[in-house]
Structures are given as structure tokens and as C-alpha cells.
Amino acid sequence: MQTLRERKKRRTRDALLRAAVELFTSRGYEATTVDAIAEAVDVSQRTFFRYFAGKEEAALGLVELTVERFVQAVRERPAHEPPLEALRQAVLDGWSSINEVVESVVPVELYLRMYRVIESTPVLLAAYLRRSTEVEETLAAVIAEREGLDVDADPRPRLAVAVFSGVMRVTERQWVAQEEGEFSLAGIRALTSRYLDQVGPALLGDWREA
Amino acid sequence: MQTLRERKKRRTRDALLRAAVELFTSRGYEATTVDAIAEAVDVSQRTFFRYFAGKEEAALGLVELTVERFVQAVRERPAHEPPLEALRQAVLDGWSSINEVVESVVPVELYLRMYRVIESTPVLLAAYLRRSTEVEETLAAVIAEREGLDVDADPRPRLAVAVFSGVMRVTERQWVAQEEGEFSLAGIRALTSRYLDQVGPALLGDWREA
DNA sequence: AGGCTAAGGACAGCCACTGACAATTGACAA
DNA sequence: TTGTCAATTGTCAGTGGCTGTCCTTAGCCT
């Protein structure tokens, strides 16, 4: 077991993250001041900034949890799987196990609602997309290693990951735009599979005969 | 000919954009205050914000010029070209004709340097990526219309554009990372073609026999 | 128990951005 | 030409995100 100090720090951070997510999802991101978040946890504004580099980081904190998990899942995929297959399975598994990752901080429902806040808040969406490109870079390295290639010599790892990520973006975008019914974990998994299956057809020359 | 007022406005905007780009590329984005830009043009800070929604918008002003041109180029591609071919040609043509679009505001050299500033400044990169997704949405609509499809019924237009954009991102990223020699208009055109040609191979299952 | 160090609070200040109001200046008709 | 109207700009005050500094508090460890 950790020391008291460490436990306290973890609790403060979780409390800040939870308060931030609750305020963002209820009042909106822009309408929530950092002061309000700090006040909700009863710490000074300065303390908030000691735990999060900025308001954005608190808003993307939940996503970050799942991102790390996803990258790890890709690493652990069986070596015989082709790159795109490994990515596909890792994503699908990731969506299935979100519960375990997120639940300790906030209920999954809030996680989903936070996704919509991100997508509908320009500055958050921007930050999210930038973070995604960082993840792409990491994934490209992982894929390259799996295939025994040099990322900087062979463009295929980066290209494959970029294509995959592009499809994931389209998927998420369509997902959050859906009605309450389809906006669920089952919904995103179904969409993911459907869209990945459509990549091949989408790249063929003539769409009219597909 | 336009009225004196309109000409004055245009001149003020161009001057602000020019001053912004010059300061961003020489001192860096974060190190440049809006006050400094306004002062360089001898207008009040308030006036700057009347022309640009924020510092970001001024930084992306040059890119915006070329984006509009690119979308237009896609629209004007011959109808018989398959989607990806139309996009490819439009991009390549776009890089060729940048001179004409940009030169009226700043020398092309500054345009290229600004690209590097964007790529190396987190908040700018984020804003750029978000803008790119907006462009993707527009392109998807254009492509869908070319093919006589409904964007919301058929996922292929969005997927094709997303894949294409993903490849463009990787291309740009590699491009700005290059040495001064390859960091040129000829360089980006060559990279673009090369990477687009590698998409097919990158999506195949087994890379070892390609 | 007491010294050491990590964590938090208080305070001051910078900068991006906005609303409101007043002053200026071009447009346009009498 | 001149007077009126409207668009453009400047000034000022204020908000909110974020940072540096300094001091206090509180867990840690001998």
C-alpha cells in the first residue's frame, strides 16, 4: 500500500477530474470556470493547475485513460495478426472494457456524455485531434516493430495507422451524432465494424458497381 | 472598383495578417502578443479582434487561402475521375499554384515557414487539425454529389475522404520534418505522390511479400 | 521530537478576449 | 458642398486561463 501522501494526491486528482467532468457535462465546457472546479473540490485554483496543465487536460482526462489502455491492447495482440486486424480487434476490445477503466472515477454514462461535449466544443475537439495524432505516432512505432520494419524507412506503418485512425474519427463523429438509443457502447462497436468493412469498397475506383 | 472603405479594410486586414505571420515566423507564436501585432500595424488591439476571431485565426489565415482554393479545385475536376483520383490531382495542382494565392499577402517563403510554426506549436496544430476535419466534411459532400450519392446514407464518401486526409497529414508531417533542401514545393509534391501510391500496399495483409 | 521535503494557499501579474460607449471617418443624398 | 447616417476604430473596464513567487502546512523519516 502506498503512503498517505500518495493516497491523498490520488484522491485530490480524482476529485478534481470528477468535479470537472460533472460540471462540463452539466453546464458546458466554456461556461465552467477553473475556479468553479477548484471550489467544488475545495482547493485553490493554483492546486488545480498543479494537477492539470490546463482546463483542456482535465476535459480529456477520461479519454486519456482509455487511450493508454488501447495502445497497450495493440501491443498485446498476437504477432501473426496483420496490422489492420490487430488495430481493429484492439479497438473493439477497448470499447468492451471501458467500464473497468472509467468506473473508478466516474460512472460510464458521464464518460459517454463527455464524448459529446468534446465533439461539440471546438477547442476541445482540436485538443482531442492533436492528442490523436500523438497516439498515431506511437501506434506506428508499435506496428512497425511488430512487422520488423523501420518506421522512418518504410512509410507503410504510418500510412496504415493514419488510414485506420481516419476511419475511427469518422466512426466517432457519426456515433456522437446519433440519437440516445444508438449512442451506446454497443452502438459504437457496431459502427466501428461496419465502417472498417467499408474501407475496401470506398477505395475502389468505381462505386457504382459495388 | 470597390469603395474607399472596402479598400481600406482589405489593406488593414492584409497588413495585420502580414505582420502576424512575420512575427510568428521570427519570434514564434507564443512569444508574439496580439498587442505586438496590432502595434506593428499601428491599430488598437480591439481592431485586431475585429478582423480575426483570435490569434489562431491570424496564424491559420494563409492556410485558409489555400484550403478554399483546394476545395474549389476538387469541384472542378472532370466528372469521370474516380474520387481518389480527383482528390489527388486537386492537391497536386494546389501545391503547384500556391504562389498565385499567397504572394499577394506574403512571399511564399514565409508561407512555408509558417507551416513549420503550425506543426511545432501545439495549440496551432490542434486548431489546424480541427479545421481539417471541417474541410473533410465539405469534401465528403462534394464527392458524394459527384457520385450521385447521399452522404448520410452511404459511408463511402466520408471514408474515402478520411483515408485521403489521413495520408495527407502523414505527408505534411514528414515534409516539415525534412531538411531545408527537401522542404520545398517540389518536395511536398513528390512526397504526396509517393505516399498516395503506398496506401494500397499499406492496406494489404502481409507486408513482407509486397 | 524535530528537521526535511512535498503539497497547498495567497497574492500579484500577464495575456487573450469581450462588451460598451464614444469618437472618427467615409458614403450618399439634398 | 454640406449635413446626416452608418461603418470603423479607439478607449476603457472587466473576465478568465495560466504562471511565478513566497510562505505555510503537513506528511515522512530518523
TrEMBL record, chains A, B:
Gene3D superfamilies: Tetracycline Repressor, domain 2. This is TetR family transcriptional regulator. The keyword Transcription applies. GO terms for molecular function: DNA-binding transcription factor activity; transcription cis-regulatory region binding. It comes from the Bacteria. The keyword Isomerase does not apply. Keywords: DNA-binding, Transcription, Transcription regulation. InterPro entries: Homeodomain-like_sf, HTH-type_TetR-like_transc_reg, HTH_TetR, MftR_C.
